Structure formats: structure tokens, C-alpha cells
Amino acid sequence: MNVDRAKVSDATAMHQLINHFADKGEMLPRALSEIYENI
Asked: What is the 8-class DSSP label of residue 25?
């Protein structure tokens, strides 16, 4: 299996995915700025 490193252009989609599950109470939300900082 190949896993690619995240790109800055992935941040918005990651934010939407994370917060979708956060809204369900399945994970903690993350700020978009925090995602950008960690890419």
C-alpha cells in the first residue's frame, strides 16, 4: 500500500472530514489553521 504525504491543497477536505465525525461525537474537532500547521 502506498500512502502519500498530505498537501496544503488537502487541508480543506481534511477539515470537512474531521469535523463531520466530530459533529457525530466520534472524534474531536480541529481548526483549519491547526491542520495547515501540521501539514
From this structure: T
Tell me the pLDDT tens digit for each residue of 10-36: 999 999 999 999 999 999 999 999 999
Asked if 28 and 22 count as a contact pair (C-beta separation under 8 A), the reply is yes
- Residue recorded with cell 474537532: 29
pTM (2 d.p.): 0.83
Question: Measuring CA to CA, how many Å separate 15 from each of 2, 8, 20, 35?
Answer: 22, 12, 8, 7
The 8 Å CB, 24+ separation contacts for 9-18 are: 10/39, 11/35, 11/36, 11/39
